[in-house]
Amino acid sequence: MGLASTVRRVLAILPYVPLPSDTGGTLRTLELVRALASRFSLDVLALHRPGNDAQGFTRWLGELGVPASRLHLVDMPRVAPAETLSSTRAFLRGTPLTYVRYTRQRLQETFRRVMGERGPFDIIHFDHLHMAQLLPLARELNPSAHLVIDEHNVESQLLARMAPLSAAPLRPFLRWQFNRVERLERECVSQADSVLACSEVDAAQLRALGAKQVHVVPNGVKLPDFVPAEKAGNDLVFVGSMDWWPNEDAVLRLAREVWPLVSSELAPGRLMVVGRSPSASVRALENERLVVTGSVPSVAPHLARALATAIPLRAGSGTRLKVLEAAAAGVPVVATRLAVEGLPMVEGQDVLLAESPQEFADALRRLRNDPDLCKRLAMNARRLAESFAWEGIGASLGEIYQSASVTAGNMKKAVGTHIVQ
């Protein structure tokens, strides 16, 4: 069967309810679901974790025309004694430790029920590698569907970068976990009909892992949420979820190694650490000129008062929404090369690059002492951010899914990479 002549039926399988949307991952998930809901007949299967806003998500989908009957929630408590045996079997079969909960029998049973009652679907969209563990079952139950994995990160690459930076006792575990994740990632991306990547850098890595067809669907930004300030502020800002280890590592490095070098010169500005779930180590940094906010309704007011954002990230994959949000807000970005990986940012034009604490300090001094440089970086970054508006990215994703072939087996796909923005 070639292109569908009617509205396509899509099932999106999510590892969480993406509300509250207070992480880069949930923001991407929410915007891609919005794009799918506005263009296709959409069902959503989502894991309901503690702290998720299922009622809010149900209302949000309803406003997009997706009735509550097409939202299928799977309650996933952190501890599931009744599933200990199946989880142990999955672990012994080689499932990575942090992926075991996504193999639970309850999830598989709900998936089978949804497929039986609502299928078949034209496209099944797996959000994150974790959910792609259902891919073989999807192929069995709905062999004609076009199966897609949205890889927010290249998960194995993320672990490879974290291991050497972690405490020595953790490194053997992370290397062991890396081997399991890489094996799972190879299996899943090679079986999928299409894989979505955040950047060309990630796309190349996914092709090397065996992905047959890769579409670059970048992370984006909601431009109306960010209005550049007429005048630069005083604060130095870091935005990010503090329960993600690379962010915590970056904040500790920023506070302990960079901020002491420039804090007196940036007075009366403060170092603002903005993001949910700060650890005890991050909370311990607080003083009158170093503020840890925890969760906030919006990062925009904090960026509006910023001189710059500093991002000494040493591990990660995908692309960083914190960079795009700062750019949209017209805030100069000082970052490691890894922090802006996959984004078309040019040193001295859109960003100031730094690796060592001294390089970060020197760049921040330049910004404090050169208003023209601040203005130029802010204007160029805002212009770049405008090319990453979610509306355009969503429209392009819709075109990809509208043109995706739907045929039994799906084993004759052309190999290639397609970039959308």
Task: Explain the overall architecture.
The chain is of the alpha/beta class and 421 residues long. It is 41% helix and 16% strand. The chain contains 16 helices and 14 strands. The chain has helices at 24-37, 54-63, 84-92, 105-118, 128-131, 135-141, 155-162, 171-191, 200-208, 245-262, 280-283, 300-304, 321-328, 357-369, 371-386, 390-403; strands at 9-14, 41-48, 71-75, 123-127, 146-150, 194-197, 213-216, 235-239, 271-274, 290-294, 306-311, 333-335, 352-353, 416-419. The strands form two sheets. The chain has an eight-stranded parallel sheet with strand order 3-2-1-4-5-6-7-14, sandwiched between helices. The protein has a six-stranded parallel sheet with strand order 10-9-8-11-12-13, with helices on both faces. Helix 2 (54-63) links the parallel strand 2 and strand 3. Helix 10 (245-262) packs across helix 14. The relative contact order is 0.13. Residues 1-5 and 408-421 have low confidence and may be disordered.
